[in-house]
Amino acid sequence: MQTKLAFLLLFFLLSSVGTQAQEPKQTEDWSKKPDIVTPGKKFRAPSDALILYRSKKDLAKWQTQNGSEAQWDATMCGMTVNRTGAIFTKQPFGDCQLHIEWRTPRKVVGDGQGRGNSGIYFMGKYEVQILDSYENETYYNGQAGSIYKQSAPLVNASRKPGKWQSYDVIFHAPRFKADGSLDSPATFTVFHNGVLIQDHYILKGPSVFAGYPKYTAHEEKLPMMLQDHGNPVKYRNIWIREL
Ligand code: MG
Question: Of the chain's two ends, which shows fewer C-beta atoms within 10 Å, N or C?
Answer without folding.
Answer: N
